[in-house]
Design goal:
Aspartate Aminotransferase, domain 2, globular, alpha/beta, binds pyridoxal-5'-phosphate, Aspartate Aminotransferase, domain 1
């Protein structure tokens, strides 16, 4: 286990009380929620309660919440489901070029199956321009799918404005809010959001549970066929304990969101300010203003992101980089390239994502260690030495 965990955008530690309740439910409430006898009814009650808890944080109605096996499944279902259900109306989808792969790869799949997709660019701050969105709309546009907050650079999109444009043009609006739930205020009605994806493990719940909000009246084909679960829209015996844990985690977070966000934001600002000040030739990627409280994405020139990660890991610190070498690809992140960063700069980036369990002491250790690591790696770099000698 890493002593210091700064990768909360990848996943979060499950809350102690959520875990305890989940284990109890797994053991004791083993009935099938579709059964009529007592333990079945108890399981059903857990699902009903979680549905209300998830609906509350979105200001939605419980009947509009459908549980899934992940955030990825919720995104797939929303996009493929709308594409199928509204095929008679058109075949054009608008998204952005900084989406999570759950959205991007689903759109690419649809492109191979007769749909047309517009990938909107983002500005140098990592934000979609509303004018670009308006220009992309065609008579055959059936869906706008733009993420609420980005998982790599933390930028928050102008969701209210996007929802307004979608509504004015009679287009369905889906948003991947996996990073935003519990980190930003969400009101699906005020924001004109028609579908929204979320995931439990990004908000201190268990892995393998997600949910899709679907506005009443929006037609959505089932994604998985079988029994009558989830109003006949998502078959398969429900992950009762996991769903109850999602509801519990969401409710706890909703109650302390402001307090948590303030604490996380203070740590974030301290780390950003100190790193930019102490480490020359470094830059923050993405808007500082329209940004998740817990996200930092910084590039260090003349540094390889992967080397930074390995050296941080040796110090017990977990973080993430903007290159994906460890996952078998040499391409830098599509999100950093979309900001206009060169491959070199994108390769030298580090994502530090802060969560509710991080402390000021951990932040200080991170800053000290990172400063030393960047210095050490640069001293080993011939490019850096050339560069410095020419100054
Ligand atoms: C993590 C994440 C997902 C995928 O959620 P899973 O539950 O891990 O499948 C989708 N979108 C964003 C923005 C994410 O951060």
């Amino acid at each position: 286990m890493n002593k210091i965990y700064f990768d909360n955008a990848a996943t979060t530690r499950i809350r102690e009380e959520v875990l305890r309740e989940m284990v109890t439910n797994l053991a004791d409430v083993y009935g099938n929620p579709s059964s009529v006898y007592k333990t079945g009814r108890e399981a059903r009650a857990l699902l009903d309660k979680a549905r209300v808890q998830v609906a509350n944080i979105l200001r939605a109605d419980a009947s509009e919440i459908f549980f899934t096996g992940s955030g990825t499944e919720a995104d797939n279902w929303a996009i493929r489901g709308i594409a199928k259900s509204y095929k008679d109306k058109g075949n054009h989808i608008i998204t952005s070029n900084i989406e999570h792969h759950a959205v991007l790869h689903t759109c690419e799949y649809l492109e191979k199956n007769g749909y047309e997709v517009t990938y909107l660019p983002v500005n140098s701050d990592g934000i979609v321009e509303i004018e670009d969105l308006k220009k992309a709309i065609r008579p055959e546009t059936i869906l706008i799918t733009i993420m609420f907050a980005n998982n790599e650079i933390g930028t928050i999109q102008p969701i209210t404005e996007i929802g307004k444009v979608a509504k004015e043009n009679g287009i369905i609006f889906h948003t991947d809010a996996v990073q935003a739930v519990g980190a930003d205020e969400i009101d699906v009605n005020a924001m004109n959001i028609d579908l929204l994806a979320l995931s439990a493990h990004k908000l201190h719940g268990p892995k393998g549970v997600g949910a899709l909000y679907v506005r009443k009246g929006v037609k959505l084909e089932p994604f998985i066929h079988g029994g009558k679960q989830e109003a006949g829209k998502r078959a398969g015996t429900e992950n009762v304990a996991g769903i109850a844990a999602l509801g519990h985690a969401v409710e706890l977070l909703q109650n302390e969101m402001q307090e948590k966000n303030e604490k996380v934001l203070n740590l974030r600002n301290m780390i950003i300010d100190e790193l930019l000040e102490k480490i020359p030739y470094s830059r923050l990627n993405g808007s500082r203003e329209h940004r998740l409280p817990g996200n930092i994405n910084i590039s260090f020139e003349f540094i390889e992101g992967e080397s930074m990660l390995l050296l941080l890991d040796m110090k017990g610190i977990a973080a993430s980089s903007g290159s994906a070498c460890t996952s078998g690809s040499l391409d830098p992140s599509h999100v950093l390239l979309a900001l206009g960063l060169s491959h070199e700069i994108a390769h030298g980036s580090l994502r530090i994502s802060i969560g509710m369990y991080n402390t000021e002491e951990e932040a200080k250790i991170l800053i000290t260690e990172l400063e030393a690591i960047v210095k050490r790696l640069r001293e080993m770099s011939p490019l850096w030495n050339d560069f410095i000698n020419k100054q």
